[in-house]
Amino acid sequence: MHLDEARQRYIDERPKYEKMAADIAHRVRVGATGISMKCNVTHRAKLVSSFVKKSLSAQDPWSEVADKAGVRIVVGHAADLDVALNLVNDLFGPPVWVADGRTLDGAEDQLRYPRLHVQVKAKPLPDGTALPDPAECEIQIRTEASDLWSRMSHSMLYKPEAALPKNVRRSLYRLLALVELYDREVERAVVAMKEDPDQVLNSIVAQSESIFYTFCTASYNMDLSREIGQIILETLGAEEKNAYCSELAGFAELHRGRLESLYRDYGPNSAAGLLGTYLLVGQPESIAIFERLQNAPYAFTAAWNEHMSNEDLLNDMKDIWG
């Protein structure tokens, strides 16, 4: 296809590529939430000017410019790169191609951008809109550190107004050593946190606090939070522990109206709370207590009675939750 024909065709079909990229990004976000992978997902359709510039060196501009639609997944650390790659494969099936710079041999003495790009075939759009042809999208997967370097250096190294001096180009590539070091140290810290025996407890306490502060504001007793958190842990199976933070968020959203009313009437800033009654309602773990009373009341009551001497505190929570 002639370059000018390809340019006009892309102008006509670019809205389709934009819509397709948005749908792929949405599917990735939903999938990432389902596996509790934190990431930032963006999308775009290539600018017409960028398409033309890239097409100048192509024999067949339409087929050779593969990134008409693009999605970028930015994860927190290097260990999540493969998690994101597996997610993409699960969502879209076998890729058209994969470019994985992490697996290249023989370049250990060089500083290189660790490229991880996947070309995927799009799924049918929910509203039935026709897909462009080819209905393919390039997905870039990066860590936060490598994304920062790539965005900073892209216009300088790959789209320069004029050729950069050698020492400037070398300086930009030297920064990759810091990117690699940063990613490795973050990964090591994440692994150490996962091996911490209190990791699940810490996550539950943090999640409870995060949800609690959407309903009210109050300082609280952290030691009590951790003590009750241990009791909650005893009522969870192995698989439940890993998914409990997500379950807790779902519980709070499902019962948001009821919880808003409850914290308004009995919370730390209510008349009852200011008098010092309903003590546990003023603690973040009250969210998890209500969830356990809803979904595992007998197991939670048994664990509470085994470890806590004050049954009245739990009875107050039962009366409130009903």
From TrEMBL:
Source superkingdom: Bacteria
Entries under CDD domains matching the protein: NT_Rel-Spo_like
Record-linked SMART domains: RelA_SpoT
Pfam families assigned to the protein according to its UniProt record, in alphabetical order: RelA_SpoT
Limits of the RelA/SpoT domain: 43-164
Protein name: RelA/SpoT domain-containing protein
Organism, as annotated: Micromonospora coerulea
Lineage of producing organism: Bacteria, Bacillati, Actinomycetota, Actinomycetes, Micromonosporales
